Input
Amino acid sequence: MRAVLWTKYGSPDGLLLKDIDMPEQTEGHVLIKVRATTVITGDCEMRSLKLPFALRLPIRLMNGIKAPKRLTLLGQEFAGDVVNSAGDKPKFKPAERVFGATGFGVGTYAQFINLPLASSDTVISRIPEGISYSQAAALPVGGLEALHFLRKADIIEGTNILINGAGGSIGTYAIQLAKHYGAHVTAVDISAKHDTMLSCGADEVIDYTVHDFTKDKKKFDVIFDIVGKAPFFASIRHLNKNGTYLLSNPMFTRMLLGLFVSLGSKRSIAGVSGKAPEDLEYLMGLVQENVIKPVIDRRFELAQMQQAHAYVDSGMKKGSLVITVDE
Output
């Protein structure tokens, strides 16, 4: 089968299209023919190791000091067809269309993947009729992250929320979900993404390269910092009493500071989302009802993975970037 191997830490030119052996079907796993996958920011951060030092060293120790060895396939989202599901009572049948997320354990940049059904890192669900492979592949990571944090914030009708980094995959879902729950949304990202954010329902948009929202007097009930780059204490000061600061890309220092903030009237919530099939099904239901929509910026083929990663590295991606494998 064809797959894009991750051969070195650093630039996208270390992603090479190769012919490799098919994954072996094993007990408790489902073998899937991949039709579409995505490139998310997390894939690029892992590839380049542009991560906090506290994470870079453990990754090298676990995955190879000089080059990737244990994990050589990146990619976390997929949509495709079931080939076979091993076990006496298989959850999925051959030819069923499925989608989901794998975490960092199994890479999706390949024509076939073999996924464990019992892993907490893996979530798989069926693709309803009328939904394309590309739409399904673009939903899991961004949708689940946005859903997780907005639920933590207890958003109700009239909640005033600011979303920093709102033009990416998590952000475009966060805008749509927040509007669905009745919030007034201020979306922050570069001006090139403003039309996308407005099309998702944002009430106001801010270009952070021109205007710093922390210099305003306006306060918010919720600040959702997806990229983790807004000044921490300035963001906390811009929360209303009993306000909530959400951080989906946490660094240790901010998480520690957040513990002290949460001792007062305001809350700071950081971490990563869980992966529950019912949450993925809930999100897909909203897609079917046209409440939310996957925002797909561009499509590349598997052989164009270097170009796809370079585009995500540029910071210009709006919503999701889809890789068509055999769609």
Observations:
- The chain has a mean pLDDT of 91.
- DSSP finds ten helices and 15 strands in the chain.
- The first helix runs from residue 41 to 48.
